[in-house]
Structure to design on (507 residues):
């Protein structure tokens, strides 16, 4: 489904080379929920942008559905760190933006937007502007917007990093619910072990600069998961040991 | 909400009233300055009413001068924004346009619009074309700068969003660049409007046979301070009215409020 082979990325700044990603190889199967867990400020967004086609690797290759990624495409939906909603459009307008760009007629667009607004639990807010919404609600709109274009792949770049702890838990449960109802291939970036454990079929642990793949964990706990079950806590402790050694 | 609005109206009214009162006290009660050069608010109000029908000493009623000025201002201003805003947008979005236009623009921009007047008189005489051209020059600059800056400030993530949805570069400009620059563009339209009035009065003082600036200038020559003030107040009122119209339009067009 998604396949990164020996992906490296080096930024050059005034002749100084800064290696951000180093020889990253990973595979994501169809409808698999993969969480990329990594510390600090290193390369995670760059990796997502490369998969999205917004940035280009300096070495290696990325293929999605067997095709080389050479630019952004509607089949790969992205949910960004900060919500990045268009402030001049209503919830409906934001969610319907993708279908509009795809050239769908107005009526179909509206129906589609309505479906995904309902799915993320925002019925009744169709006509609201983003400025009137809370952080959690904005991220729901961001998810609905990514879903609405019917992508086969969803790339989520630390979507809950800016939310307060309470809302964050709630949104993790929501993402799990939405994904279970309407499965897609997901790559979800985070630096939060709990979040990773709650959501992932598989966790890919990255090291710090330059970023490489350090470890992989298959998570077989039944869904929806319980944050305080003994199995959950045990896995959490095990993974956190690995995370600490990367610092 | 309603209470707040009422409070606002009360304070604004009181502020204008106090201004008039102080003016009245200085002019009529304490007689600080001679009334021929510093007329009281009542004298100006009388002159205002009289000027609606009387054509002396400047050859026209207030209405005639106002219409002459409005014609020039609106012509120059509309031309300025119709050309300036799209040009600024294209410069902000397309690097090639920026490279071609920016150096010329940077050279011309520092020349004050009033500095164009002598050349315009030489080329176009003292008719409407010369004045409208000067006003065009004053209006076009802020329109370009603000549209340019607004487009340049487009959030890159917003551009990514459009691109991942398959929008072409031009579609991204239409659907993302322009809506996101709209508040800045409107700010530019307001600055342009102010600059247009300023240039108008200067142009009419130097080269005209009618208009509010001309009226002010004529009355200075015959020493009628009350008529000068009538001209100034009219300019103030009409300027405020035009700004109000722009702001109403802005409220209709700029949706959703902005903060990130």
């Amino acid at each position: 489904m998604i396949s990164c082979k020996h992906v490296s990325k080096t930024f050059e700044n005034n002749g100084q080379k800064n290696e951000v990603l180093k020889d990253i190889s990973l595979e994501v199967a169809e409808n698999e929920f993969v969480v990329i867990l990594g510390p600090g400020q290193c390369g995670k967004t760059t990796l997502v942008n490369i998969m999205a086609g917004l940035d280009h690797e300096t070495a290696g290759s990325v293929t999605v559905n067997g095709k080389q990624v050479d630019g952004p495409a509607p089949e790969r939906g992205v949910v960004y760190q900060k919500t990045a909603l268009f402030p001049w459009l209503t919830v409906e307008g934001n969610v319907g933006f993708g279908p509009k760009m795809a050239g769908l007629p107005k009526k179909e667009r509206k129906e589609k937007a309505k479906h995904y607004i309902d799915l993320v639990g925002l019925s009744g807010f169709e006509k609201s502007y983003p400025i009137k919404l809370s952080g959690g609600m904005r991220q729901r709109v961001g998810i609905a917007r990514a879903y609405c274009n019917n992508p086969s792949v969803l790339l989520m770049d630390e979507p809950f990093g800016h939310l307060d702890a309470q809302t964050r838990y709630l949104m993790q449960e929501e993402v799990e619910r939405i994904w279970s109802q309407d499965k897609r291939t997901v790559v979800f970036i985070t630096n939060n072990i709990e979040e990773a454990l709650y959501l992932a079929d598989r966790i890919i642990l990255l090291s710090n600069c330059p970023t490489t793949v350090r470890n992989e964990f298959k998570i077989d706990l039944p869904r929806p998961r319980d944050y305080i079950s003994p199995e959950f806590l045990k896995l959490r402790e095990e993974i956190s040991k690995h995370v600490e050694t990367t610092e | 909400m309603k209470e707040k609005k009422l409070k606002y109206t009360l304070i604004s009214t009181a502020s204008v009233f106090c201004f008039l009162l102080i003016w009245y006290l200085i002019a009529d009660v304490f007689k600080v300055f001679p009334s021929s050069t510093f007329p009281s608010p009542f004298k100006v109000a009388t002159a205002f009413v009289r000027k609606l029908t009387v054509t002396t000493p400047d050859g026209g009623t207030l209405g005639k001068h106002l219409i002459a000025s409005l014609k020039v201002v609106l012509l120059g201003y509309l031309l300025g924004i119709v050309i300036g805003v799209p040009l600024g947008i294209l410069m902000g979005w397309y690097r090639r346009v920026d490279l071609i236009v920016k150096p010329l623009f940077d050279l011309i921009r520092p020349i004050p619009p009033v500095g164009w007047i002598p050349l315009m008189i030489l080329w176009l005489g003292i008719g409407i074309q010369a004045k409208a051209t000067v006003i065009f020059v004053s209006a076009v600059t802020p329109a370009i700068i603000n549209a340019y800056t607004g487009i340049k400030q487009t959030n890159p993530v917003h551009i990514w969003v459009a691109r991942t949805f398959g929008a072409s570069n031009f579609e991204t400009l239409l659907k993302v660049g322009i809506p996101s620059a709209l508040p800045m563009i409107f700010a530019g339209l307001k600055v342009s409007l102010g600059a247009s009035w300023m240039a108008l009065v200067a142009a009419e003082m130097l080269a005209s046979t009618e208009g509010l600036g001309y009226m002010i200038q004529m009355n200075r020559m015959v020493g009628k301070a009350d008529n000068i003030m009538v001209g100034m107040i009219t300019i103030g009122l009409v300027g405020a009215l035009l700004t109000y119209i722009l702001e109403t339009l802005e409220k209709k067009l700029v949706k959703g409020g902005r903060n990130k």
